[in-house]
């Protein structure tokens, strides 16, 4: 039986964000829908520090509350401090994007009267209302999975399009970084994102990224930016060294917001399944997404400007961090496949 909270008086709403950049971006249709269901409410997003950039410029959000698990909210006394921080804000409604038991426990202990989330992870008794998880939603895209929380609570969803808003400062910084890069070449900028959270199973091979960069630079006189976090710095250097004179390694050199703004300037983005893949999709940037071990039904880039390259193999999607066999799902994606797809996009 569907719950209905649409007639609740909710002046202050807390949305517990997803913990990963890609998931956070895929929850932005929920943020928009909550605003449209409760036009006069004050909406706060509770998020880990590394996903703050997804929400801080979003016009549907009034406030971002940092879940500082490394310091102020560190497990133990910090957990009680987080409960106190939530309670002090006197929220009327909490909507939980995260399925973890802890997410429900926090808002229960903080005495938020209406607590909405899926009835997973033995947390039904902590939620009010607990939304039954329709098994069919596990076979759909994560955008629909997250929106299902609102549908189960009797709220309108207001579309599936993802939102990603850039700050003026990040836009200006991207303009400044790309000015000299563009004026000495064709003006076309290609971004590559050779890393991915977790292990190596989601990653196309560095030597093939380097070969792709060499061919794109030679054919189109492109300027190529290598994206990634601090942990991807060495990977970016490896690719830059294998494609001399072609690439600028930005991995670990930008904030997440700056990376979003730079992706927005790209004529083409080539990426593994990653948070930045979903950023490019939300920004409607032409991209080639190389998919191996992950489930394309659940986490594909949801944009008409995105092209997926995937070669079906019996063991995929395995959803593993590291390949236990021969990495066939990535090995069968050739340099020519990706280059030819890039050419079709750049020539269109």
TrEMBL record:
Keyword flag Transferase: yes
Top EC group: transferase
Keyword Transferase recorded: yes
Catalytic reactions on record: an L-alpha-D-Hep-(1->5)-[alpha-Kdo-(2->4)]-alpha-Kdo-(2->6)-lipid A + ADP-L-glycero-beta-D-manno-heptose = an L-alpha-D-Hep-(1->3)-L-alpha-D-Hep-(1->5)-[alpha-Kdo-(2->4)]-alpha-Kdo-(2->6)-lipid A + ADP + H(+)
Gene Ontology cellular-component annotations: cytosol
CDD domains named among the record's database cross-references: GT9_LPS_heptosyltransferase
Enzyme Commission number(s) from the entry: 2.4.99.24
BP GO annotations: lipopolysaccharide core region biosynthetic process
Alphabetical UniProt keywords: Glycosyltransferase, Transferase
MF annotations from Gene Ontology: ADP-heptose-lipopolysaccharide heptosyltransferase activity
Domain of life, per lineage: Bacteria
Record-annotated membrane-spanning stretches: none
Pfam families: Glyco_transf_9
Cited NCBIfam families: heptsyl_trn_II
Family of the protein in this entry: Belongs to the glycosyltransferase 9 family.
Protein name stated in the entry: lipopolysaccharide heptosyltransferase II
Source organism of the structure: Desulfotignum phosphitoxidans DSM 13687
Lineage: Bacteria, Pseudomonadati, Thermodesulfobacteriota, Desulfobacteria, Desulfobacterales
Gene (UniProt): rfaF
